Amino acid sequence: MKTIIKKVDQTFIDENIIKEAGDIIKAGGLVAFPTETVYGLGADALNTKAAKKIYEAKGRPSDNPLIVHIAKLEDLETIAKDIPKTAYLLAEKFWPGPLTMILNKTNNVPLGTTGGLETVAIRMPSNKIATQLINASGGFIAAPSANTSGRPSPTLAAHVEEDLKGTIDMIIDGGMVDIGVESSIIDLTVTPPMVLRPGAITKTMMEAVIGEVSEDVTLMKDDDKHRPKAPGMKYRHYAPKAELILVEGEMETVIKNINVLSKEAVKEGKKVGIIATGESRDRYEVGEVKSIGTRAKEETIAHHLYQILREFDDDKVDIIYSEAFETKGIGKAIMNRLLKAAGHHILKV
Ligand code: TXA
Ligand code: MG
């Protein structure tokens, strides 16, 4: 299949391109598009066959449900029922934006979209290209991250091309995404509501709006006894090809340990990658050192996380040592993704 690739400027959106993409989705095709979190791979959420194509293109297990993206609050009631007041309160505060809510689904949503579940994940993105595309496609776009299953999520159109060029109808290149990690997911079908995936909207931010919120126990630790509540969180996700090891502790000790470990690995003939920060990058003595952002502003770390994991794939490193991060604010999303990418391999020093 030939994949159409079109650049769109977010500040001056070409309506013809949006219409072309919308028509593809209406006809049951697949279009990758930017959102404020990561690029999504979109299909008509109300069309089982179209949703099925997403699973094929990504190589995604069919029990892993998709998020339905909407652009208007009133459309919520077409796809969700028994909607609690908390959903409207969260929507008012955080939509459009990087928050996904799990609610009971109506019969309008096929089980092919929800991986067989009676609940549906719903999000209203804030990226203008995304919003216009949803409107041009009939209002309901099912979109997982636009990577092949198991690879880091795409934050640039080039990442989507790497994974999916030739297997999908169109890619809209809207430049680099804003946030860089996927939306926060909250399950509103349980009491108290539960965070299933941390993102830019933190548990504390949600609690300020709706009161007590719990958290899936598997988010930050590897736990054989519990399965993650979001089916997609059970896979070794976001993973680079190389072995990734997180090193946690006092900054000076971490730097010293990573230096010792990387020198040993180099001696064994391994190609080493190091995930450092603006504050520490000059302190490493061997290996391919990349600064992921600055600790003074953790948003910069989220922004570059997946890009750096992909760059290390291109560099063909054998082993990556990464500094660990604080789990406050967006740091929790960063550490959740890094822990998964590392298969929970963490060295406490
Ligand atoms: O930021 C995002 O959310 C991006 C952009 C494209 O919007 N999308 C995204 O989709 O991250 P995906 O498919 O990569 O991740 C969706 C996650 C998976 O872990 C899935 O298992 C979970 O949401 N999920 C979807 N529906 C669910 C449901 N009904 N119950 C529990 N978890 C659900
Ligand atoms: Mg994903």
Descriptive notes:
The protein has 349 residues and is of the alpha/beta class. The chain has 10 helices and 17 strands. It has helices at residues 15-26, 48-58, 76-79, 85-94, 128-136, 157-164, 203-210, 251-267, 298-315, 331-341; strands at residues 4-7, 31-33, 40-44, 67-69, 80-81, 99-105, 119-123, 141-142, 170-173, 184-187, 194-197, 214-215, 243-248, 272-276, 288-291, 319-323, 346-348. The strands form 2 sheets. Strands 1, 2, 3, 4, 5, 6, 7, 8, 9, 10, 11 and 12 form a 12-stranded mixed beta sheet that branches. It has a 5-stranded parallel beta sheet with strand order 15-14-16-13-17, with helices on both faces. Helix 1 (15-26) packs across helix 5 (128-136). It is globular, with a radius of gyration of 20 Å. The structure holds threonylcarbamoyladenylate and magnesium ion. Threonylcarbamoyladenylate (TXA) is lined by residues 35, 37-38, 40, 64-67, 100, 102, 114, 117, 119-121, 123, 125, 143-145, 182-183, 185, 196, 230-233. Threonylcarbamoyladenylate binds at residues 35, 37-38, 40, 64-67, 100, 102, 114, 117, 119-121, 123, 125, 143-145, 182-183, 185, 196, 230-233.
What descriptive keywords fit this protein?
five-stranded parallel beta sheet; 349 residues; binds threonylcarbamoyladenylate; 17 strands; twelve-stranded mixed beta sheet; single chain; binds magnesium ion
- Contiguous low-pLDDT stretches (5 residues minimum) are none
Bound small molecules, deduplicated: threonylcarbamoyladenylate, magnesium ion
Q: What share of the residues lie within helices?
A: 25-40%
Q: Find the count of extended strands (DSSP E, 2+ residues).
A: 17
Q: What's the pLDDT, averaged over the residues?
A: 96
* Biggest β-sheet description: 12 strands, mixed
Report how far the terminal alpha carbons are from each other. Answer: 50 Å
Overall form: globular
- Tally of alpha and pi helices: 10
Q: What would you report as the Rg, rounded to the nearest angstrom? A: 20 Å
The secondary-structure class comes to alpha/beta
| Element-level helix/strand string | EHEEHEHEHEEHEHEEEHEEHEEHEHE
Percent of residues in beta strands: 15-25%
